[in-house]
Amino acid sequence: xxGVPGIARSESIHNRIFWSISFISFTIVMIYFVVKSILSxxxxxxxxxxxxxxxxxxxxxxxxxxNAGPFRLDRFLEAFYNYTDRINATNTNNRSELPLxxxxxxxxxxxxxxxxxQSLNPYFYSLSSMLYTCRFNSYPCTxxxxxxxxxxxxxxxxxxxxxxxxxxxxxxxxxxxxxGGNGLLEMEFYVHSHQYIPYYWTGVGMVALVHDxxxxxxxxxxxxxxxxxxxxxLGYKKKxxxxxxxxxxxxxxxxxxxxxxxxxxxxxxxxxxxxxSICQQLxxxxxxxxxCGCISPYLWNARSLVLPxxxxxxxxxxxxxxxxxxxxxxxxxxxxxxTDLQEKYxxxxxxxxxxSEFLIQKSALESxxxxxxxxxxxxxxxxxxxxxxxxxxxxxxxxxxxxxxxxIVRETxxxxxxKQSAQLxxxxxxxxxxxxxxxxxxxxxxxxxxxxxMLYRLIRHQYYLIRFKLQERKHIAPEEIM
Length: 482
Description:
The protein has 482 residues and is of the alpha+beta class. Helix content is 39%, strand content 21%.
């Protein structure tokens, strides 16, 4: 340590004042920078390190698929007209068709069915009615290799290769190199667009999503539209982003009770992890239920809620559509504009700690070709879906308007890995402190030990002086008495 010896060896008052002022000034500067270094560490600064790694073998991703049109007209009409009869809203005698004037009641019918705990599954397209062929790495796959879930927008959807809580011979997470392949899923579909509800859905085709095996498929927002008359190829590259756990970030992987119940009710045994968007939807639903007594008609697959005040689980009823029940809209606006309400209802809705993405490159060819037509025709005629009235004379045109093929293929074994790391560690902080103390007043660990040794010697010297004086007094006292 410099400065203190200068004070000690000073032979004049001016020299001592100079060294004292210098030592105190540099000590103050040193303390400032040391404190700043410590505070910088507790701000927990981070950086993203990008690595390009080769990962093979790797898990083949999950693939979710839906018919773009949710309802089958032949299954839907009877139940729908029974509902409109009950509310005295039927305005047609032809129950084999749906006029434009009746379309506005479809939403009310769906909400009424949900609130009565009636299943909508009979009105959706089953996978067996759409899936013509399926092959994974050239080996056949069947409808037993898929699990189903319900999308509010697209009805009954189906996922291949989702991670299951209880894996079976049919449903387990497959590696891309299974059967000696390179990771290729090929499927052919027939969408039966003549059974789409008129005036209700604009567009014909399928919706697909490539996602992680443990990720809930947000197919309404992230799905890719696939139009008939083509063979589509979705080539994927894997990208992962991993964030540091608290205190560096607020990320979480904890699946809440509400989310677990939602997964159990709508995703047929899939072992999905935490998803921030679902957490946000559930907290909005919970607040809206407490304010309005019902939840959003656009998120009716998130009805099972855990109330924060009582921790009770409730099966919430669905509100009428927002234009006739504005309470839900106001409640969500109120929640999102209040920090206190966000903290109470949505405090768990942080970013995921691990995010796996699949970057898609899309391309397509015109399909089917002539030699495929008879096989597709035979499949459609065996289906449980009624044929179009002009099928016998116009079946080729119907096939071209309803057939599509989809290939999911791994483009590369290279994975982009984005990993968050701490900019400052304990070692960095100690190094900064050592640098500042050494720069300004010359302190190092050795100089600290030298200072301790000096204090020890001074104390020891002082101890012997005091001891010597005490002994001297003992010898002098008797002589004085005599």
